[in-house]
Write a structure and sequence with these properties.
- The complex is a heterotrimer of chains A (about 180), B (about 375) and C (about 290).
- By secondary structure, chain A is α/β, with parallel strands linked by helices.
- Chain A has 5 helices and 8 strands.
- Chain A has one domain: 3-Layer(aba) Sandwich (Pyruvate-ferredoxin Oxidoreductase, domain 3).
- In chain A, the strands form 2 sheets. A 6-stranded mixed beta sheet of chain A has the order 2-3-1-4-5-6. A two-stranded antiparallel sheet of chain A has the order 7-8.
- The radius of gyration of chain A is 15 Å and the shape is globular.
- Chain C has a single domain, classed as Rossmann fold, CATH 3.40.50.
- Chain C is built from 12 helices and 8 strands.
- Chain C has an 8-stranded mixed beta sheet, with helices on both faces.
- The model of chain C has no long low-confidence stretch (mean pLDDT about 95).
- The interface between A and B is medium-sized, with 21 and 25 residues.
- Bound molecules: thiamine diphosphate, iron/sulfur cluster and magnesium ion.
- Thiamine diphosphate sits at the interface of chains C and B.
Chain lengths: ~180, ~375, ~290
């Protein structure tokens, strides 16, 4: 089982990113679950979402304690939340844009999702959309196939700039 | 069609296909998504139901009752305080023999305000004459909602059915969902006692001591008859769509020395604990109770039993543990865990089973060593 | 201008959304009420704003109670305080849903029984806590998550319902006019019996406008005449300054509706319905003020 924890702020699309990723994994003929942890918080507060991907049905509902991968959609969260908490030895981190944070030796990849979204004018209510480009980056990392990533995105969003954003992130992420 | 959906969306999808004539509902976390999805279906024309956005849950159930007695198919959904606020009408629906289907998204009760999963809300409604079923996956939520209409509307039942799903852990998780082509699985509803101006009758009038108990007995008789109806509808569902669930969902119980009994998502998580324990050489099994009313016959003879209650009856004990104790003459180890969304992992459940103390009760997080 | 006390009873950094005007309303209510006050609060956004146990964002006791129960609970509390010869302010702080929908029975009962308390309804015109579903106070044409095509029905006129109970004091207010609100709360608390203040509280995520326009949105509601500021003391109506000006020369209603995402794509008929309702209300209030009706 591959376990992913996504950190975002309420309204940034972390919950949708988790769902997209699960859908893409599902389109890869794997089993997947995606769920947010809901605090009684409001917009702008840090939100955590979880994704599990496996070859067999997933019966675990509890929160992910030891993720294999941590995705951070908003690096400012690292000032208030210990995003590396519980990361397995050998686990990876994907950041949105680089930041001089100490990643404690974990393999850290980064791609500027915000710039990609702004470049394509993927903006809703003043905020850049990060949940579709991040799926492209995750496809580049091999978490899901790019074909499934694209089909998941077009299943959920009719605007094809979302697929373009995923493609851009796929290209721009350096492994 | 194969897709992924949350537990809430799965319930809404089933309701859309069944297309009740009247839906009356009131929002409450974590059920809200069901109401919102149904409102959207109605607005965009995918669902032809009359949707009544009532001003409270008491009115939601009352509106369903008013619609149902005309012979209309009805649906509502609620949770926690919404269910409690409805309580009077919940009794009324069963006493009126109305086949209303309700989804209840299990959530803790205040004070303090807590929006997370617990079963005490629906457990407090267990004596109202409703059939109650607890589900554990998105697919099961969908399938069970479909079956609930058939069961409620069966002539030998004519009682309302409550489909319970855990708040957030199931209502908000995305899992795979295969929707079915219903065909004629749900025929038109024929309510034998529907209001008919050509045949004027009084409904629920003053009923004296010489008659009242007969109506009560009639509810119980139908409750008992519902066992066969549930079996036959499950069988039919299996024949048509290839899935069935049973009164309990048993996992590795055949040769088990110890069985953990639970409900809802904890029952699925428990299966993972069983795999762990089997690797250690402990012959454990998991029994997830699906139907709480009518309460199933459980075969737990000669084994140790651990019951996990995500509910409590103060001054008495875990409600499920009490049911197991009285119906199976077992001396279970009763664990109270998961109240108000308390995290309970498969490791924790494995720990309950390893450290079981038959006949005792422990509160996870309170009692030392649990 | 009235002196507003510097003391704060609502701490900063609550979990309210950015630009939340209802927390501003609460801040001024508490400043006017002072420390000898208990808030009775049904489920609403403010239940979240108060923080999670063991924290609290308020420096007065807050009694949380079930959604339908606030006014009845306050009745009991007020009776007990008065029996104990205590003059503690009992203030219900409830949303529009908790007031005009599920809580209306308790509200009506408490007013009929002349409970000595102040009932404040902050009106963000929907169920904010649960993510913006329609309420009885949602205006015609507004999109909410349960009225994705715009609400077909009319906003329930809670002021006229409360008026029918003939309370010694009732008023409307708006978060964009905090001094006016402060004065009204102060006045209400100086009067014995049931008092009601209905405060319009614009809500950026619910009404879908940028957070920084929250004060402007409240002002526009008043300047377009969509929200009328008035008081009714012992039956005598006074229309307050900003609304008086708006009645003579209202701004075009589009200036208020336009920036709000919830009114996007609203039909001409719905706009007309909103405007004619507002005009009718204004006319009725002016006639009442003149003592004509
Ligand atoms: C009996 C009951 N039904 C439903 C709820 C869920 N609920 C909590 S707050 C709320 C909406 C509150 O709306 P409003 O009173 O307008 O206050 P706001 O959240 O907008 O501040 C709802 C529906 C509840 N807590 N109890
Ligand atoms: S939803 Fe609206 S009223 Fe509620 S906290 Fe946010 S801004 Fe305030
Ligand atoms: Mg409101």
């Amino acid at each position: 089982m591959y376990e992913i924890r996504i950190h975002s702020r309420g309204g940034q699309g972390g919950v949708t990113a988790a769902k997209l990723l699960a859908l893409a994994a599902f389109r890869d003929h794997k089993y997947a679950t995606a769920f947010p942890f809901y605090g009684a918080e409001r917009r702008g507060a840090p939100v955590v979402s979880f994704v599990r991907i496996d070859e067999s049905p997933i019966r675990v509902y509890s929160q992910i304690k030891k993720p294999d991968l941590i995705v951070v959609l908003d690096n400012s969260i690292m000032d208030v939340v210990d995003v590396l908490h519980g990361l397995r030895p050998g686990g990876k981190v994907l950041l949105n844009g680089t930041l001089p944070h100490d990643m404690k030796g974990f393999q850290t990849l980064s791609v500027d999702l915000t710039t990609i979204a702004l470049r394509l004018n993927l903006v809703v209510a003043g905020s850049p959309i990060l949940n579709t480009p991040v799926i492209g980056a995750l496809a580049k990392m091999g978490i899901v196939s790019m074909d499934s990533a694209k089909s998941a995105i077009s299943e959920m969003f009719s605007d094809d700039r979302n697929v373009k954003a995923a493609e851009a992130a796929f290209q721009e992420l350096v492994l | 069609m194969l897709t992924i959906a949350t537990g809430n969306k799965a319930v809404a999808a089933a309701v859309k296909q069944v297309s009740p004539e009247v839906i009356a509902a009131y929002p409450i976390t974590p059920q809200t998504e069901i109401v919102e999805q149904i409102a959207e279906y109605v607005t965009n024309g995918e669902l032809k139901s009359q949707y009544i956005p009532v001003e409270s849950e008491h009115s939601a159930m009352a509106a369903c009752i008013g619609a149902s007695i005309t012979g209309a198919r009805t649906f509502t959904a609620t949770s926690s305080h919404g269910l409690l606020y409805m309580h009077e009408m919940v009794n009324w629906a069963a006493g009126g023999r109305l086949p209303i289907v309700m989804a209840n998204v299990n959530r803790a009760l205040g004070p303090g305000w807590n929006i997370w999963a617990e079963h005490t809300d629906s457990m407090q409604e267990r004596d109202t004459g409703w059939l109650q079923v607890y589900v554990s996956t998105v697919q099961e939520a969908y399938d069970t909602t479909l079956m609930a209409f058939r069961i409620a509307e069966h002539n030998d039942v004519l009682l309302p059915v409550m489909v319970n799903l855990d708040g957030f852990s199931l209502s908000h998780i995305n899992q795979s969902l295969e929707t079915v082509d219903l065909g004629d699985f749900i025929p038109p509803l024929r309510l034998p006692h529907a209001i008919d101006v050509k045949n004027p009758r009084g409904y629920g009038p003053l009923t004296g001591p010489e008659d009242y108990f007969k109506f009560r007995w009639d509810i119980e008789r139908s409750m008992r008859d519902s066992v066969k109806v549930i079996e036959s509808i499950e069988n039919e569902f299996f024949r048509r769509f290839g899935r069935s669930y049973g009164f309990t969902d048993d996992y590795q119980c055949e040769d088990a020395d110890v069985v953990v009994v639970s409900m809802g998502t904890l029952g699925k998580e428990a299966e993972v604990s069983i795999d762990l324990l089997r690797k250690e050489g402990i012959k454990a099994g998991s029994m997830r109770i699906r139907w709480l009313r009518p309460f199933p016959k459980l075969d737990l003879k000669g084994r140790d039993v651990v019951v996990i209650d995500r509910d409590y009856s103060f001054g008495y004990g875990g409600i499920l543990a009490e049911a197991v104790r009285s119906t199976c003459r077992a001396e279970p180890y009763s664990v109270i865990a998961g109240l108000g969304g308390q995290e309970v992992t498969y490791d924790d459940i494995a720990g309950f089973i390893r450290g079981r103390r038959p006949g005792e009760e422990s509160w996870f997080g309170v009692t030392p060593d649990v | 201008m009235t002196e507003i006390p510097k003391e704060e009873y609502l701490f900063k950094c609550t979990s309210a959304c950015a630009g939340c005007s209802s927390s501003l309303v609460l801040r001024y209510v508490l400043k006017a009420a002072g420390p000898d006050t208990v808030l009775v609060m049904p489920a609403c956004c403010t239940s979240v704003i108060q923080g999670i146990y063991p924290n609290t964002a308020m420096n007065v006791p807050v009694y949380n109670v079930a959604f339908a129960a606030a006014a009845a609970c306050a009745s009991g509390m007020s009776a007990a305080f008065r029996a104990a010869k205590k003059s503690t302010n009992v203030i219900v702080y409830a949303g529009d849903g908790g007031t005009v929908d599920i809580g209306i029975q308790a509200l009506s009962g408490a007013f009929e029984r002349r409970t000595d308390f102040l009932y404040i309804c902050y009106d963000n015109e929907a169920y904010g806590n649960t993510g913006m579903q329609r309420s009885g106070a949602t205006p015609t044409g507004a999109r909410t998550t349960t009225t994705p095509g715009g609400k077909p029905d009319t906003k329930k006129d809670i002021d006229r319902i409360v008026e029918a109970h003939d309370p010694p004091y009732m008023a409307t207010a708006c978060s964009a006019y905090p001094h006016d609100l402060f004065k009204k709360v102060t006045k209400a608390l100086s009067i014995r019996g049931p008092k009601f203040i209905h405060v319009l509280a614009p809500c950026p995520p619910g009404w879908r406008y940028p957070t920084e326009q929250t004060v402007e949105m409240g002002k526009l509601a008043v300047k377009t005449g969509m929200w009328v500021l008035f008081e009714r003391e012992y039956g005598k109506v006074t229309i307050n300054g900003p609304s008086r000006a708006a009645m003579i020369k209202p701004l075009p209603v589009e200036e208020y509706l336009g920036p709000q995402g919830r009114f996007k794509g609203i039909s001409r008929e719905a706009v007309d319905a909103l405007v004619s309702l507002a005009r009718r209300n204004a006319k009725r209030l002016s006639l009442e003020e003149e003592g004509v009706c």
